[in-house]
Amino acid sequence: MEDNKKFKLIDKIYINGEFIKPNGTEAMNIINPSTKEIIGNVILGNEVDTQNAIAAAKKAFKTFSKTTIEERSNMLKRIHEAVISRADDLTKACVEEYGAAVKAAVGRTQLTANSFLWAKEVIEDFEFTKYIGKAKVVLEPLGVIALITPWNANNSQIAIKVATAISAGCTVVIKPSEFCTIQTQILAECFHEAGIPAGVINIVNGLGGSVGAELTRNPDVAMISFTGSTKTAKIIHHGAVDSMKRVILELGGKSPNIILDDADFTKAIPRAVTSCFGNNGQMCIAGSRLLVPKHRLEEVKELIKIAVENTKVGYPWESDTFIGPMINENHYNNVQRYIKIGIEEGAELVVGGEGHPKGLDNGYFVRPTVFANVTRNMTIAREEIFGPVLSILTYRTEEEAIEIANDTEYGLGAYISSSNIEKANKIASQIVAGTVYINDVMLEMKAPFGGFKQSGIGRECGIYGLEEHLEPKTILISNENI
Ligand code: NDP
C-alpha cells in the first residue's frame, strides 16, 4: 500500500439522510502524521448543526423505535456489506490520516465491519420482553444517543456504538474525532449506501467544546456513549446531570502486565512489548506497566531489548511496520514530555529515549522506549502516556504483584502470563480490571468491555452493551377488575 496523495475536502455533514453544508464555517487541516503533509481540509459543524442533528434523530426515533428485530437485523447486515465494499478505502484512510500500521489498519477495518454482524447475532437471540413473577417487563429503546469517539479507535468505536444503538432501536448523533474525518466520511457513505432510514444516523464533524458540549447539555439526548480520556469524561458526566442523561464512559487505563515466575519468558516478554506498543502505543488497553519477579529483572531487560529491536517503527504503509507515528504534534510532544520525566525521576532507560527514531524525523514518530527500575510513585508508572513507552516494575511475591497491579486509579485491563492456568485465574479474580487477558490478547466482541474505577462507567458490546441502551418498563395486569 502506498501513501495516498489525493487532497480531501470534507465540507459536508450528514443529517437526516443527507450530506449537507454545515452552519459552522471553521476549517481545519487534515494532516498526515507520517509526513506532516496537509492532505485535506474539513469544515467543522457547530452548535446549530448539532441541534439540527438531534432534532432529526428525535423525529426518526418515533418510527425507528417501533421497528422489528428483523428489520433492524437486516439494516445491520446491509451496513456490514457496505463497509466490506469500502474496506480498502477505510484501511487506506486509517493508515494515511491516523498513521495506523497497515496490518493493524486491516484488522481495525475487519473489526469495524464485523461489529455489525456481531450485534445482529446478539439481537436475534435477545428477549426484549421478559416475565418476572406477575410482571411483564418490556425493554424499550432509550431515545436519541450521542456517540462521541476518540481518534485512536474512531472507526471501530463508531461501529460498535452505532451497531448497538441500531440493535436497541435508538437513533444517534455521532461526534467523531476531527482527526479522523476521512475515515468518518467513508463510514457515513456506507450508512447512506445501506439505506438506513433518514435521521437514524446523523454525523456532525466538530469540536468537543461546541458539538460535544451541545450533545452533553441538550435535553433531547437520552444518553451519551463516550470513548475518550477520563478528563473529558468528567466534564461530560457533570454536564449530563442537569438533563439526567445516562452515560457510558469508556476511558483510559494504566494496565498491569504480570509475568509470573513460571511463565515462558521467551514468549511472555515479546508479548508484553506488542501489548504495550500495539496501535502505535495509542491504546486504551495498553499493558503499560510490566510487573516481573525481581530476581529475573536482568533477563527481562535482555529479552526486552531483543523484542524492541524486532519491532519495526516506520512508515505505516510498509507491511512490516508495527509502530507508526503519534497522531499529531501535540501528542508527540506529550509523549516526549513523559520520556523526559521518566529520565528525570530516575528510571533506568533500557531502550529508546527522547527524539525521533533514526531517519524518521519528518513525521511524529517516537522512539519505542522501555524503562526499568520504575517505582510505583513515578509519573510514568501512574499516568496514561498513550505512546510506545513501557515501564518495568519488580515484585518479590505474587501478593505484592497483585497489590502493585491494583495500585492505580484506572481499572480497564490486565494481563497475566503463567504456565499454571489455575493460578493465573486465581490472580485474575483479585485484579480490579474490566478485562483480564491470560497468556495472550484475544478478542471476544460479545463479552462486555469497559472499566472499573476511573476507567469508566458501563459496558459496551454484546448483551451488556445492548442493555445500556434499553429502559425496562414493568407492566402489571390485574384480571380481576376487567
Ligand atoms: P479526548 O477525551 O480528548 O477526546 C475524546 C472525544 O471527546 C473527542 O471526540 C473530543 O473532541 C471529545 N470532547 C472533547 N472535549 C469535549 C467536551 N467538553 N464535551 C464533549 N466531548 C468532548 O480523548 P482522545 O481523543 O485524546 O482519545 C484518547 C483517550 O481515549 C485515551 O485516554 C484512551 O485511553 C481513551 N480510549 C478509551 C477506550 C476504551 O474503550 N476504554 C478506547 C479508546 C480510547 P475533540 O477532538 O474536538 O477534543
Automatic annotation (TrEMBL):
Pfam families: Aldedh (PF00171). The active site is at E250. This is aldehyde dehydrogenase (NAD(+)). It comes from the Bacteria. Its EC number is 1.2.1.3. It catalyses: an aldehyde + NAD(+) + H2O = a carboxylate + NADH + 2 H(+). Residues 20-475 form the Aldehyde dehydrogenase domain.
